[in-house]
Structures are given as C-alpha cells and as structure tokens.
Hints:
Structural class: alpha+beta
Number of strands: 16
Shape: globular
Amino acid sequence: MDNNHRLIWIGGKIVPVAEATVNVLSPTSQFGANVFEGIRCYWSEQDQQLYAFRLADHYKRLQNSIKILRFNSPYSTSDFQQGLVDVVKANGYREDIAVRQTVFVDGIGGTWNSCEPINMFIAPIAKPFQKIQDKAGLRCQVSSWERISDRNLSPRAKVGANYINSRMAYLEARENGYDTALILNNQGRISEGPGACFFMVRDNKLITPPPTASVLESITRDTIIRIAAEQLGIETQERDIDRTELYICDEAFLCGSAMEITHITNIDGLAVGDGKLGKITQDLSNIYHQIITGQLSQYKEWLTPIY
C-alpha cells in the first residue's frame, strides 16, 4: 500500500491519513505533550501471519509513560491492542510494518501542564526501515551533547519531547561526517545512541550500560540480554562504560525496535575490532530475526498474531 493513502486510527475512528488531524493549538502540538510506542510487526511467509512483537511489553511501558506524565487517560491496555489490530487489518498489511501508537494531550487552549483531554492515534507504515543485512555498519561519534537524566527529562518515559536530545546528538554527528552518535550521561559514562541502546563485546563478554545510566528501559535491550543467555550461553554485564573503553572493544552495536540490531564499525575515527560485523553480533541478529518471524517456538509468547 502507498503510505500516502493508508488508514490511521484516531479518536476511535479509522480514517484516511489526510483526515487524521490534530489541532495546532493542542498541547501535543505546541509543547510535545505526548507519549508513544514504536511497535514492529513482522510477516511470516511460512505461517501466512503478521506478528506484533512483544506487544504486551510495549503497552506496559506505554501505561508507565502515561502515569509518569500524569495524563488522565481513558485508555486501557485492551483498547491499545484492539485499536492496533483493527487499523492494521483495515490496511490489509501482509508485510513487515512499523506502528506508531501515540497518546497525546488534545484540545484547544490547553497549556504545557494540561493533563487532559487525552486522545490517541495509531499509525502503521509499510517498509519503514532498511534491513540490517543491507547495512554496512555504523560510524559513530561520541556527542558533545549530554544525555537527559531522571533529574530533568526522565528517559524512563517514552515522551516525544525527549527525542530533541537525540535529535541534537544525531544532527551533530551527521554534520561531522558520521552516521550517528553515542551520548554520554551526566556522569560522563556511555548512555545510549539516538533512539537506540548500546552494547559492546570485550573478551567474549557482552556489556551494556545499566538502566540507571539514563537509558530507556528498552524492550529490544531486554530481548538481547535474554537471548544471549538462553541461546548463546553469554551473560550480559550491565555496568558503566567509559568513553575510552569504546576504543578497545571487540564488537559494538546499537539496538531498538526501529534499528533492530545494527553493528558499529567505527567510533570517533577508530575501528571497532577489525572494522567488520563481529560473530556475537551476527549470531544475536540471526536469532533475533528467527524469533520475530516465528521460527523459534519457545518465543512464540512474544508474538501476537494480527490475523
């Protein structure tokens, strides 16, 4: 389907995308008063089924974001899921898609501190991202911008306005000739990339910053920690990472619902390992793709069938 003609769920109705509008004077438009989830759905040719990945976990995090932002939301978790299923079916997707599900402060004349009225839109999009196997790897720059923290704009809540922090780091890196950035927290330790969590490998050990390092409580991050232990027998060390430790790691990658697992080949102009896709990263990526397409039966509980 042409994404310009797709259907959107908004305010309980499924409408053409051109009719899915938000008032310019609403708090979400003026102040970024919204929380959201980016949910991936994967088509299984073998099963002839579209699977939403870890939907219950996405909705648990969405409800947590609503609570932290103190929205007076009328939506239940079952409302979230029913809306997603309805709009995906209405579009008839039988391919990999991404779904942006956003709960926002609507209305006219509200302010930055308004907690209602609350509305929601659910926007699926086909062919949203380039596949990991088509990517040559990322060249990353450690950003001069500091990562937000729980003392100012908590990264625990997935808030639209929080992503300005990632925007600044990403644009700086691009202007300097890199693909993306790595961001330090207020302790000068590695936090994450723009919209993606960071992992590295040293001496066959998988290492990632802890949740207290100003990282989003990422569903993909949790998935990787679990499958590394269960499928590869590799325990993940959740600990602080200094900037210079990046320069001597063997492998590194960023991960997230959008990025999936994307390897890093260079940081601050220095090659990561031999500058190629590492074995552990490749193994994790292969297992991840088997899981999201329903090929590993022990992880079927993570998949919600749409049809």
